[in-house]
Amino acid sequence: MEFKQRTLMAIADMICGNFKVEESFFVYRSSSYLTQFFQDCGTEFAHDGSTRNYWVANTLRQILVEPHPNAQTPPVAFLRVIQALMDSADALNEGSDRLGALALLNNVLGREGFEAFYAEDKQCYLQHIATQKIVSVTTDPHRPFSASELKRRAQLLIYLDIASEDELIEEVLLPLFRQLGFHRITAAGHKDKALEYGKDVWMKFILPTQHVLYFGIQVKKGKIDSSGVTKSGNANVSEIHNQVLMMLGHEIFDPEIGKRILVDHAFIVAGGEITKAARNWLGNKLDASRRSQILFMDREDILNLYVVTNLPLPQGAMPETLANEEDEPPF
Questions:
Q1: Which domain holds residue 104?
Q2: Is residue 330 in some structural domain?
Q3: In the β-sheet with 294-297, what is the strand arrangement from edge to edge?
Q4: Using an 8 Å Cβ cutoff, are 101 and 86 in contact?
Q5: Which residues neighbour 276 within 8 Å (Cβ) at sequence distance 6 or greater?
Q6: Contacts of 309 (CB under 8 A, 6+ apart)
Q7: Mean pLDDT, the chain, as a whole number?
């Protein structure tokens, strides 16, 4: 996606705050604050000491060439830049509705066919004028990823290879499900297997109608397959079958309502691949009613969801941590 140079320079001036003090609707950002601004937007750009507005304009140009779904949808990083720029908490010389700043921004974005507006959640969004399509920071796990997102995805992939099953649950899955809107996420742990009844985690999701769905999660660190003999670290789907039956047949206690309830759906989560054969084998073993209760999530799903929800990497997945572990001798 290409924006005109004067558009990029105008937006860069807004980000830098290059206006007369008495007229400015945008906060002034020095070199270090520009670096912080783009880091808060999920990028790794750092100001190099050059002229601020030219550097910002060049940075925006690099962001705009990152992968994006179509010509009407800018890259996610650019949408984050607009949201950060128009944060209502940064209002200057006007109210929190930022009408002055919004007018200046729309005067510039209009050249490129976009319009900015505030929604009820007080966040700034973009709308493609010709199609009236609203574009936002989407959590679609199948959208194209930016270079920085691909780097984070690769780091998390390395972490999944070395993480234990408990670390997969505690450091990856629990933060992910919380970010996705699940509530009362409770990990059973592995100290007392007798109390798990086939569930490593249970949680609930509140629908917009205020109805509640309960989920049980069975987690395996490695690959789930259907072969007679599996490699070390992998799980056979026949093991999962028994655990799923236990999960769906045993009640859990929800202290918030003081009742015991059955889970509505069972998540089968693997840190590796869940083969198609394993999915089909399990589906054939379960009756139609229980088959509809099973949801699968494998490594690809975990990686993609973790990246698009913009969660910070687990401590063990930080680049310096991974580098130290790779340097350690195998004995």
A1: 5-135
A2: no
A3: 183-187, 201-206, 212-220, 265-270, 294-297
A4: yes
A5: none
A6: 139, 176, 179, 180
A7: 83
CB atoms within 10 A of CB 171: 18
Shared domain check, 163 and 108: no
Euclidean distance between CA atoms 292 and 15, whole angstroms:
50
Tell me the two tokens of residue 231: 């490699």
Nearest to 9 by CA among 54, 45, 48, 41: 54
Each residue's pLDDT tens digit, 144-162? 676 777 888 999 999 999 9
CB of 172 within 8 A of CB of 217? Answer: no
Collect all residues with Cβ–Cβ distance below 8 Å to 120 and sequence separation of at least 6: none
d(CA 141, CA 120): 25
Which SS3 state, helix, strand or coil, does residue 62 take? helix
Residues 119 and 155 in one domain: no
Let me know if 1 is exposed, middle or buried by CB neighbors in 10 A (0-12, 13-18, 19+). Answer: middle
Residue 206 lies in a domain: yes
Contacts of residues 228-237 at CB distance under 8 Å and 24 or more positions apart, as own/partner, are 234/272, 235/270, 237/278, 237/281, 237/282
Instruction: Provide the number of structural domains found in the chain.
Output: 2
Overall pTM > 0.90: no
Q: How many residues does the chain have?
A: 331
162: which DSSP letter? H
Give me the sign of the Cα torsion angle 28, 101, 138, 114. Answer: negative
Flag whether pLDDT at 329 surpasses 60: no
